């Protein structure tokens, strides 16, 4: 799957990593819903770091259709809240 991190670029990520990322996504969703700013910031950074670790960055000039779009590391709680679906940022 191709994942876009807003403001950074795209990463190729195996579907097999979605369950692990889903746990961080669940934490992030709970923190957004409760308005826990510091927790939200830490979990967002952990989620994006894990995506970068597990995935393979695509070249800067590559433009593939993204199946998943994640917020930038400096996104605000309100910006992420606007991006959330019922099940968080990551489906499933």
Report what the structure shows:
With 92 residues, the protein is an alpha+beta fold. It contains three helices and four strands, in the order E-E-H-H-E-E-H. It has helices spanning 18-34, 37-54, 77-83, and strands spanning 2-5, 9-12, 56-57, 68-70. It has a four-stranded mixed sheet with strand order 3-2-1-4, with helices on one face. The protein is globular, with a radius of gyration of 12 Å. The mean pLDDT is 93.
Gist of the model:
The chain has 92 residues and is α+β, with helices and mostly antiparallel strands. 46% of the residues lie in helices and 14% in strands. The protein contains three helices and four strands.
Mean pLDDT: 93
Q: Tally the helices.
A: 3
* Biggest sheet character: 4 strands, mixed
Radius of gyration in whole Å, from Cα? 12 Å
- Report the strand count: 4
The coarse silhouette is globular
Specify the structural class: alpha+beta
List keywords for this structure.
3 helices, 14% strand, alpha+beta, 92 residues, globular
